[in-house]
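Hey,
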Amino acid sequence: MARRRPRGAGVAATYRAGVAALAVGAACWWLGRTGGPLCDPDSLLQAHAAWHLLSAFALAAWGRASLDGGTGRPAQARS
């Protein structure tokens, strides 16, 4: 039988993945800005496009981690 991770472990890992993606995306933005070392408008692979993809992934990871323990349901309000 497979062992289950504690509920908080998956949320923390998702947050870490999102923060890492955002950090790498910010580096891509910085290096790919106009006049930057990776700025090549004629290239098929663009650093600015990587920024968009990575920031979208970070937003999706944040949204996923904000759901109730990764179950796909919003967290219940506590009174």
